[in-house]
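Data deposition worksheet. Section B asks for the primary sequence of the deposited chain exactly as it was used as input, without tags or linkers unless they were present during the calculation. Section C holds the resulting structure in token form. Section D is free text for depositor observations; keep each observation to a single sentence. Incomplete worksheets are returned to the depositor.
Section A, Depositor: J.P.
Section B:
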Amino acid sequence: MRKFTSEIGEEDFGKKVTLYGWVHEVRDLGGLVFVILRDREGFAQITLPKKKVKQEVFEKAKNVRRESVVKVVGEVKEEKRAPNGFEIIPEEFEVLNEADAPLPLDVTEKVPAELDTRLDHRFLDLRKHRIFAIFKVRSEILNATREFFHERGFIEVNTPKIVSTATEGGTELFPITYFEREAFLNQSPQLYKQTLMAAGFDRVFEIGPIFRAEEHNTVRHLNEATSIDIEVSFTDHNGVMKYLEELIVYIHERIVENCEKYLRWINVEVEVPEKPFERITYDEALEIVSKKEEIPWGEDFSTPALKILAEYMQGYYFITDWPTESKPFYAMPYEDRKEICKSFDLMKGWLELASGAQRIHKYDLLVERIKAQGLDPDSFGFYLEAFRYGMPPHAGWGLGVERLLMAMLDLKNIREAVLFPRDRQRLVP
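Section C:
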């Protein structure tokens, strides 16, 4: 019976099992050979006493190269000194595919490698349990997110990633050839999820890729990322902020409950945050930052400024009430103070994880704001039409999966949080 290494327990002692995996290490002591087999869930020690196993099996195990793929069939025996407290005495040792030598990357990590080298040989890097564990946690985040929204009556949607115009204006777009026309990779599902509010979908969420042609080379920027987006009718910015903090707490609870082993592999302790999260306004944040760095009112916070703010703010927190001109055209200004809009960013320390707002749902005001930001309303034809025939008040946000993973697991570089990262320099693998 085939099992993962982690599935073998005391009930299997004395029984025959079948394991598949990679050769992590080989130790040849002459008349005794140890092969450490690795699969995605752990390790198993394959013990081969020369006098107790077939000669053919002994020779294969003795001469197998590290990272070769093998099949092992044998009896489970208790051995407290071995990984997981058991060893396998093999009847069969089949090399399914032998690895070349030397390896371009040491999976045991006895010889450390730089991040660029690791990403160049990402398939090998992902064999490391420490790295694999990041993506088990990521998978749990996505599973938890879907459960959270389905339980609350949301509809999961998929919006186009090839579009004819910019979501928010600007030049940070990847142009592509679309038959006889120019098109772009979408920066955000924003315009489509708002249109679905006019269609009466009421509450939607999407988990999908976004593309930003930003010429950054930092530890927190990617040019292809995964975003969790929501849009909700008949609510305001406070309503969707509540969904956001509830989701963050729900995700943490699921990770703590279901990912104990993987957190141990990463050597990270995840704590469930308390809600409600602290809120400070843009003006309050600016006052804190201005003690050490001068930021003109209306401008976004630089990385050094956010690191100053992080000295005062603990855990997850919201920065609210941003200057209207600093946010996209669809953010709703306050009625009594037009220069401020009903927007927010979710932060963890100095890292921005999510951004959202109540949206403008009145056609005339939306056209006015589009023009005010130097954009042409004619470029937003399908979008604007939805506001002329019964658009409800609505609000929403977008949350970066990689940013959340980076914050939860204290990763030093966002490229660690994506299988095959895309940045300004990297298009392969």
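Section D:
The two ends are 36 Å apart (CA to CA).
Residues 182 and 391 are 30 Å apart (CA to CA).
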